[in-house]
Structures are given as C-alpha cells and as structure tokens.
Design brief:
Helices cover about 35% and strands about 20% of the residues. It has about 270 residues and is of the alpha+beta class. It has two domains: about 10-185, Hotdog Thioesterase (Thiol Ester Dehydrase, Chain A), CATH 3.10.129.10; about 185-265, no CATH class. Helix 5 (about 185-195) packs antiparallel against helix 6 (about 200-215) and helix 6 packs antiparallel against helix 7 (about 230-240). The model has no long low-confidence stretch (mean pLDDT about 85).
Length: about 270
C-alpha cells in the first residue's frame, strides 16, 4: 500500500462509520448534481458533496447513467467501439472531480492555487460502475490530509484517497490514492512581491499580465467582466501604480463569472 493511501479504518471506528453512513443516507442534497464550477469541468458526474462536520472527510454520489459518467467516451474517435466504458479513465475522472469539489469546500482562496499531482496507487477489486446490481448505488468517500506545509504559506503536500463504496452492500470495492503539491499561482506570489516593492517585481508582473492577455484569447467563454483591461493595467504598472488585490484577482481569473452562473443555472 502506498505511503499516500489513507485507510477508512484510520479515520473511523466501526461505530463511527455506522453514524457516517446514517448521516449520508439522510443527506438532503445527495441526489442533486454538483455545478461545473465546483468540479472544474463542464460535465459534472458527481452530486453535492457532504462533509463530515469540520473534518477532512467527504462523500458524494456518482451519477453513472448514459447522460453523465457513461456518456463520457474516451474513444470518441472510434464510434463503433462496442465497450468504451470499461476503463480506469472513468474512475480517475470521478476522483478528479471529487477532489476539486472537496477543495472548493475547505481550501481558502482555492482559485488562487495551482496543484500538481504526484504518482499514486489504484486498487479496484471489481467493476463497480456498470453492473446492474451496483449501478445507482455507488458513492465515493474522500479522505484528505496535509502532510507538509500549509495553505496559508502557499505551499503544501497533501494526501487524498477516494474509496469507491457500494451503498447497497455497505462495502468498499477499491480506491484511488495519491499526493498533490499545492502552491499559489504565479500572479499571487508576484503581487505579494509588488506590494513589498521587491526588485524586479513590476517587470515580473508586467510579463504575467501579457501572458494572461494571451490566455484570455483562448477561453471558450470570452471574459466580459474585467474590471480593467490589460493595456490599462500595464500602463498603470509602468507608472508605478499599485493595482488593488480585487483588480488583480479579477484579471487573472479564467472564469467569466456572469456567463458561468448563467450556464450553470441552465444546466440545473
């Protein structure tokens, strides 16, 4: 077992897990699909996330049907492939969305963070998504732990394990685990240097603004909610004018919030 794998028995006694199951069964939002902004993908396949009190323990339902998880075909360029869904990509996709949704709940200023995945471990005892006796009864349980560093300092090594659980049989059929290295995005560190008037900080921020202007050109939904244009921001920097944190966060966001909310409301 990987050093990054978090086991259910390390977080729960038998009695505590029964209480956890009871809380999950009574979770009122269990059958509500989560939003694209919460999973950082356009096609959510999981439900609203339940958090166990103030602990880093989470649970959500997997929507396996033809319109959700089963709709995602990794062999999109092979339309006549008969079984496009018996692959680990669907487990990883579920885990990826679940991780993002969990971090949106607990990590402060999550939009300012950048995460790199480190090698993990996969153990699937049996196909859990597609058999009719299991389909519709699968939830995933997430266990999270900070191993080194802290979110506040902008650098942290985290462990995250996703257990695939059959709610009907009350049995785990496998897990995905791994580690993630979290750090602040470049613009956050550059803006802090700018406020402290460090040497070269204005020049560095200028380069990042130019890069972000280029990023904005490739967004699927163009930004129309900018508080300041790139040209104006660069001109202010050349004059030595310090932008506000709100202006900087807005400019470096890759989300057009108004359009995002409109799209999400239409998808509910």
């Amino acid at each position: 077992m990987s050093e990054f794998t978090l086991k259910l028995e390390d977080f729960f006694s038998s009695e505590d897990f029964e209480k956890f199951n009871s809380q999950w069964n009574n979770f009122p939002d269990k059958d509500k699909l989560t939003l694209p902004s919460e999973v950082h993908m356009g096609n959510p396949v999981i439900g609203k996330v339940m958090q166990l009190e103030d602990k880093s323990v989470f649970r959500t339902k997997v929507f396996q049907g033809r319109n959700k998880l089963r709709k995602i075909n990794p062999y999109y360029n092979a339309p006549f492939y008969l079984m496009p869904f018996w692959h680990l990509v669907h487990y990883w996709l579920t885990g990826e969305q679940f991780y993002h949704a969990c971090m949106e709940k607990i990590r402060p200023n999550n939009h300012k963070c950048f995460v790199r995945d480190l090698p993990g471990e996969v153990k699937i005892e049996k196909p859990i998504f597609w058999p009719s006796k299991v389909q519709g009864h699968v939830s995933v349980i997430g266990l999270h732990k900070i191993l080194k560093g802290s979110w506040e300092r902008g650098k942290a090594l985290e462990s995250f394990t996703i257990h695939f659980y059959d709610d009907k049989q009350n049995k785990s059929y496998g897990y995905l685990s791994g580690a993630c290295f979290m750090q602040f995005r470049s613009y956050v560190r550059a803006y802090q240097d700018l406020k402290e008037m460090k040497d070269g900080s204005f020049e560095r921020m200028l380069r990042l603004v130019e890069n972000q202007e280029s990023n904005h050109q490739y967004l699927a939904i163009p930004r129309n909610d900018l508080l300041i244009s790139g040209e104006e921001l660069k001109e202010n920097l050349r004059k030595g004018i310090l932008p506000t944190e709100e202006v900087v966060d807005n400019f470096f966001s890759l989300y057009n919030l108004d359009k995002l909310r409109e799209t999400e409301l239409q998808s509910i």
